[in-house]
Amino acid sequence: MDIDARGPRFAAAVTTAVLAAALITRSPWLLAWQTLVFALGAAGGVARSPYGWAFRTLVRPRLAPPTEFEPPEPPRFAQAVGLVFAGLGLVGFGLGPAWLGLVATGFALAAAFLNAAFGYCLGCEMFLLMRRLAARPE
User: Fold this and answer.
1) Around 132, how many Cα atoms within 13 Å sit in the side-chain half-sphere?
2) What whole-number distance in Å separates Cα of residue 75 and Cα of residue 113?
3) Using an 8 Å Cβ cutoff, are 40 and 48 in contact?
């Protein structure tokens, strides 16, 4: 079942704010929260993540009905990619080296910002590219 395309973009906006705060403060707690959110989104889909719940219950009822839908698989894959980068950032902030935390969190922040600001989901594009490459005949 396809999902409202505005949901992942809302989640990306919240993710951008959380990752920016984590990067500025170098807070492993904020990054741990975002890592958990990515894990829930990767495991259950974007709609089942905390930000998906917030969109569904607090934001979507105040909007016009959706006009654009998308399959849930690409955003779910993007959550898994975010999980990897946030996890690396958490390791860097928690155990070192600090530059790993900064770089990995920065990459996750850049990807979330691109989705929030421009609707360009890097993880989704990776998913589609991998699917096209896998479908190519030898």
Assistant:
1) 6
2) 14
3) yes
57-71 CB burial, b ≥16 within 10 A, e <16: eeebeeeeeeeeebe
Predicted structure pTM score: 0.93
* Cβ(127)–Cβ(77) below 8 Å: yes
Per residue in 61-79, pLDDT tens?
Answer: 999 999 999 999 999 999 9
Are the CB atoms for 36 and 125 separated by under 8 Å?
no
Distance CA 46, CA 30 (A): 19
- 89-138 pLDDT per residue, tens: 999 999 999 999 999 999 999 999 999 999 999 999 999 999 999 987 76
Q: What are the structure tokens assigned to 108, written together?
A: 């996750």
